[in-house]
Write a structure and sequence with these properties.
alpha/beta; Ferritin; Rossmann fold; two-stranded parallel sheet
Amino acid sequence: MSEDHKRALEQQLWNIANTLRGKMNADEFRDYILGFIFFKYLSEKMEIFADDILQQDKLKFKDIRLSMDAYGEYIDAIREEAIEKLGYFLKPEELFSEIAARGRGDNQDESNLDEAKTNFILEDLQKILTNIQLSTMGTESEDDFDNLFEDMDLNSTKLGKTPEARNAIIVKVLTHLDKIDFKLGDTESDVLGDSYEYLIAQFASGAGKKAGEFYTPQQVSKILALIVTTGKTKLKSVYDPTSGSGSLILRIAKVSDVAMFYGQEMNRTTYNLCRMNMILHGVHYRRFDIKQEDTLERPMHAGKTFEAIVANPPFSAQWSANPIHLSDDRFSQYGKLAPSSKADFAFVQHMVHHLSESGIMALVLPHGALFRGGAEQHIRRYLIENKNYLDAVIGLPANIFYGTSIPTCIMVYKKCRENPEDVLFIDASNDFEKVKTQNVLLEEHIEKIIDTYRNRLEIEKYSKRASLALIAENDYNLNIPRYVDTFEAEEAIDIEAIAEEIKGLDERMGATDQTIEQYCRELGIATPF
């Protein structure tokens, strides 16, 4: 699919999403529209899979009707294979296109689908969404499909005051979506996955501070992905301890073959979104392991190490900092915990613990994490002086994240560093383009950061390799201006030339005054001075 077609699909989906905009806030209608798109995706995958199985019988999945004598035999056979290969099952009458058609009945004009002209499908639709989950019960995919649609309350008065009004708006949305061809048969394309990411980004742009809970801008995701895949085209495992919508680890798959995806997310709604996003990008249920829990308090991947780790943790979040954590292998060797008011380095410690010996980790942090004192300074010192894990510090422009305008940085850690004698500092804070109210990193800015990192280049006023001794001299303060000199000397001023210029101006002004005085005498009026 061409870029134009892709953009057209994105715009179509966004327009359909806006059908619900007047009914509820961005967070709420996001859950409905993304859920319906996901249901359509599962239906189309199911239909393609079943049609392939039925080829030998010269049947289509939709041809199998309840009235057929062999209905049960067909359904049981297809269900068994679908659960094994897809991880879920839908009956022919449960497909998205079938329920959408039942809702609109004989009326094909979606602009005319009011309460009186739609068939009532809310109860059937709710059962179908529940049945998708029930089809996985007791199977290997159960955890991956558990409660995926729980945020879609079809009886919410936010959709409409009456059941009929709610039914009408849902039928209208389903009808719009039903007309779109996701082209799932095109195995070379991930257009739907990209469009889903586009919608998530659109919702994030209007979600204020909450956006940071589920979305990392693609420009930043790309930098992190390119950093952790340096020198590698295949990765056994990638991990994000604050996975949000999953955009970060999915981005890694665009630049490297990834065998297994791992993640953990505390927010239940965002956890559901992450699992949907994985499946929509064609990641088989056996290839991802996303858990829902508080990563710092209850880590769910204990004992595992990962080849690539990325994260955009909530900036300076609160956590318990319970002294009991000092007996936890993630924190015990440091002797100090990150302060309860700022969990930034608790996430660093957690990620370092799960990093394999040959792995790379990169995370986004607020600038304060580079120079704050106390326990954070102690942890920075341990990571550099005792472990020598810090590989690079990259300063990003302000105002590139949704919901906050603060400048941020990327910290890169490796356990086996190829250049253990220094740390690379990059000041990319001035390279951006302003788009409306947001600062944006262009492709050229991203390429410059990655080229500088991978080749450890020193560029005047942009990057510097700082020795460990110099960092120690600075008391493990990693504030970038201490190492990258961006000072621009002002042009020298010639005082004597300026004095002569002022003297000349005085003389010209005196001559002008005399001319004005002469004109005033000739006119017989008083001079203005």
